[in-house]
Design brief:
Distance between the termini: 44 Å
Structural class: mainly alpha
Largest sheet: none
Pfam families: Mito_carr
Radius of gyration: 21 Å
Number of strands: 0
Oligomer: single chain
GO biological process, one term: malate-aspartate shuttle
Order of helices and strands: HHHHHHHHHHHH
GO molecular function: L-aspartate transmembrane transporter activity; L-glutamate transmembrane transporter activity; symporter activity
Shape: globular
Helix content: over 70%
Function: Responsible for the transport of glutamate from the cytosol into the mitochondrial matrix with the concomitant import of a proton (symport system).
Strand content: under 5%
Protein name: Mitochondrial glutamate carrier 2
């Protein structure tokens, strides 16, 4: 059964021929739809992960729902989409790289007899995750500053201070002026840990689940669209929970502005040590439910659009006209 599914996955990979333009369009469509649907939950996830417990156990948000209510009450509907512009702008190349790179490596790692062992699937996924960090790191860095700005401003207001409003552009320019282009790559190590491990889990799991569903009737041997969607949701949520500790570390390292009294971190090991010492192991699973809810539809939509061949259909229709 496993060898059949591997051969099936290899056949799909071979048939795609790695056409770049359709992958970019598919990735863009999937990313924009997905981000637009789940961004408020992603914002809540970021604020929960960055929130540190005070000396007396005090904290701003008590739960995912509490964070959502307080954010909506203080910042309104559009406040729930702070940082979405940079995410939507960069999600197209990020998704294109991730999905296309995985296809590319699966194609080249397929054995001569057409099978793709699980170890090679994991290697292909890990390499795809490694490729995407060139886009993911600056995108996540800027997005996190915008998402967390409301939390930092609210805590500053309680202390009688005022935090000036910022934009993704001003943050990017300030980082480039101070540290050059490398300033946009703060937290690269943590991002690599998260994205590589996520892809190692996600892609083989998705391929396995997707191979179990019914096939299309067009002779392509590809899964029906709802199977790709559900497989993407299930694999995405499981992989998201698995790598949540890395996501917490990455989020904390990339938060450039802390609320008054919050700890600063000097790298992955320092962040792990301080977080464990002051907040315990539970801190590494902060925002875990939010992240699962965010990632599930994001990757479900991405895989559905990718396997439906939306871009290919649009390009064929354009050529006919």
């Amino acid at each position: 059964m496993a060898s059949n599914s591997n051969a099936s996955a290899a056949a799909v990979s071979n048939n795609r021929q790695f056409a770049l333009l359709p992958k970019i369009v598919n990735g863009g469509i999937a990313g924009i739809i997905g981000v637009s649907c789940v961004f408020p939950l992603d914002l809540v996830k970021t604020r929960l992960q960055n929130q540190q417990i005070g000396a007396n156990g005090e904290k701003m948000y008590n739960s995912m729902l509490d964070c959502f209510k307080k954010t909506y009450r203080s910042e309104g509907y559009f406040g729930m989409y702070r940082g979405s512009a940079v995410n939507i702008l960069l999600i197209t190349p990020e998704k294109a790289i991730k999905l296309a790179a995985n296809d590319f490596f699966r194609h080249h790692l397929t054995t001569p007899n057409g099978s793709l062992p699980i170890t090679r699937q994991m290697l292909a996924g890990g390499l795809a995750g490694l490729c995407q960090i060139i886009i993911t790191t600056p995108m996540e860095l800027l997005k996190i500053q915008m998402q967390d700005a409301g939390r930092v401003a609210a805590q500053a207001k309680q202390s009688g201070n005022v935090v000036p409003k910022v934009s993704a552009t001003s943050i990017a320019l300030e980082l480039i002026r101070a540290k050059g282009i490398s300033g946009l790559y703060k937290g690269t190590g943590a991002t690599m840990l998260r994205d590589v491990s996520f892809s190692i889990v996600y892609f083989p799991l998705f391929a396995t689940l997707n191979a179990l569903g019914p096939r299309r009737e067009d002779g392509s041997n590809e899964a029906v669209f709802w199977c790709s969607f559900l497989s993407g949701c299930a694999a995405g949520s499981m992989a998201a929970l698995f790598v949540n500790p890395f996501d917490v570390i990455k989020t904390r390292l990339q938060a450039l502005k802390k609320a008054e009294g919050e700890m600063q971190f000097n790298g992955v090991i320092d962040c792990v040590g301080k977080t464990m010492k002051h907040e315990g192991i539970k801190a590494f699973f902060k925002g875990g439910l939010c992240r699962m809810i965010v990632i599930a539809p994001l990757f479900g939509i991405a895989q559905m659009v990718y396997f439906l061949g939306v871009a290919e259909a649009l390009l064929v229709a354009t050529m006919k006209h």
